[in-house]
Design goal:
By secondary structure, the protein is of the alpha/beta class. It folds into 2 domains: about 110 residues, no CATH class; about 210 residues, 3-Layer(aba) Sandwich (Rossmann fold), CATH 3.40.50.410. The strands form 3 sheets. Strands 6-5-4-7-8-11 form a 6-stranded mixed β-sheet, with helices on both faces. Strands 1-2-3-12 form a 4-stranded antiparallel β-sheet. A two-stranded antiparallel ribbon has the order 9-10.
Length: about 350
């Protein structure tokens, strides 16, 4: 169906406007015929001036206009004027995502310039959350033990507020360490009842498993069993580094000092977590690489949007046809009665 917009309407059959060609020809021939009609000539019109503007002759031209207009309206009716009322139904196939974040004290190491590991991770997580639109996102934190900070939710503002309040294990006064197996099991527990077609866990840590009652292999089997895809991220540089330690002096002031620390990221385990579950392992040695990793995850795990468009057409040809028909009838009635003329 060819559609063409004219004067606010959509015309379903615009080819009908070709009929305006014979319509113009008809007007031209009619006017020519009127011009060639016989006339009554007089030598002086002074005697007829008092009768000027009287009688029915002045209505004849108006009646002819009514005829032309009626035919034009019928042509427009044949072109089927209509308006379209389009509605789009969007079906969002969102994801359920749980971010599992290591908050062990080693996350304070300052090798993610210009920030430490934890601050850099918090910034990147916040940016990631702000880019999602229809996905439920939850947050689990862990060190020597794991806690659900926010269950999967669409309340992104609540999530952002909780992310900004995250502290290390020392500040939060929880058991320090790196319980990777426990953390995976805790994240899986938040996704096991998910009705979403895609379940995703983003797992961030800067160490290797050294704590917890669940070993990483068991935690991985739990996640795999629930069909959870894991994107694991190793944060920071491995090797000898300096760990910030915060204490208070005699006056209650916070004092920062450094102590030697051997940082080790278990690349083998984190790689296995991604491969076994159909995810991927990333290594972040600086802040911009961590941001790039989350951008890639954001592009890999996209929400599917299906659109179904419904269009309802409102027809207006009846109004044009009705008005044109009655104008034509009016013209005929006047032509054979009130405005009837004698032989030419």
């Amino acid at each position: 169906m060819s559609l063409q917009m004219i004067s606010g309407f959509t015309w379903a059959q615009p080819w009908a406007f070709l009929l305006f060609i014979p319509w113009f020809v008809f007007i031209f021939l009619h006017l020519k015929k009127q011009k060639n009609k016989a006339t009554f000539q007089v030598s002086r019109i002074k005697a007829f001036l008092p009768w000027q503007g009287r009688g029915r002759a002045q209505y004849i031209l108006l009646n002819e206009i009514v005829l032309f207009l009626s035919l034009a309206l019928m042509v427009c009716a044949l072109a089927r004027p209509q308006t379209a009322d389009a509605k789009v139904k969007r079906t969002l196939d969102g994801l359920d995502i749980v971010i599992v974040l290591d908050i062990s004290d080693s996350m304070l190491i300052e090798d993610m310039k210009p920030d430490n590991r934890l601050t850099s991770a918090k910034k990147t997580i916040s940016e990631f959350v702000q880019k999602r639109t229809s996905d439920r996102i939850g947050l689990v934190i862990f060190a020597g033990e794991a806690f659900t900070l926010v269950p999967p939710t669409l309340d992104y503002q609540l999530l952002l507020d909780r992310v900004s309040q995250i502290q290390t294990a020392q500040d939060a006064r929880i058991k320090d360490g790196t319980a990777i197996g426990v953390a995976m099991a805790a994240g899986a527990a938040r996704l096991k009842d998910s009705q979403a077609k895609s379940r995703v866990m983003i797992f961030l840590t800067d160490g290797e498993n050294n704590s917890g009652t669940i070993d990483p292999e068991t935690g991985l089997e739990i996640a795999k069993g629930y069909g959870i895809k894991i994107y694991s991220v190793g944060i920071g540089q491995s090797g000898k580094t300096q760990l910030p330690i915060y204490t208070q002096d005699a006056f209650g002031n916070k004092v920062k000092r450094y102590q030697p620390f051997e940082s080790t990221v278990n690349d083998e385990l984190l790689t296995q977590m991604g491969q076994v579950t159909g995810g991927k392992y990333f290594r972040a040695n600086k802040e911009d690489s961590l941001k790039g990793i989350f951008d890639e995850i954001n592009s890999l795990e996209t929400t599917k949007i299906e659109e179904t468009k419904y269009t309802k057409y409102n027809e207006y040809f009846f109004y044009f046809l009705t008005l044109g028909f009655w104008l034509f009838i009016l013209n005929r009635i006047l032509s054979y009665s009130f405005l009837r003329r004698g032989p030419a």
